[in-house]
């Protein structure tokens, strides 16, 4: 599991725990973690595409 996927999973767990306990701060923290995971995934994908383009022979 990559960093982005790990952050997303952690965020989903926090958001669910916050929803179950009524903890709005924990829910918000979970959403931030999920967004961080999404950004990390997109940056990683862009980096991979750039590496592929540069390394074409």
- Enumerate how many helices there are, as a single number: 2
- H-E order: HH
Q: In terms of structural class, how would the helical and strand content be classed? A: mainly alpha
Largest sheet: none
Radius of gyration: 15 Å
N-to-C CA distance = 30 Å
Net shape: rod-shaped
Query: Could you state the oligomeric state of the chains shown?
Result: single chain
Low-confidence stretches: none
Based on DSSP secondary structure assignment, what is the total number of beta strands? Answer: 0
Number of domains: 1
Average pLDDT level = 93
Q: Approximately how much helix is present in the residues?
A: over 70%
- Report strand %: under 5%
Family: Belongs to the UPF0337 (CsbD) family.
Region (Disordered): 1-57
Domain CsbD-like: 3-52
InterPro entries: CsbD (IPR008462), YjbJ_sf (IPR036629)
Quick overview of this protein structure:
Helices cover 88% and strands 0% of the residues. The chain has 57 residues and is an all-alpha fold. It has one domain (3-54).
């Amino acid at each position: 599991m990559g960093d982005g996927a790990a952050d997303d999973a952690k965020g989903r767990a926090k958001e669910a725990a916050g929803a179950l306990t009524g903890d709005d701060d924990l829910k918000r923290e979970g959403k931030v973690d999920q967004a961080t995971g999404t950004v990390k995934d997109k940056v990683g994908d862009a980096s991979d595409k750039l590496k592929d383009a540069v390394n074409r022979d």
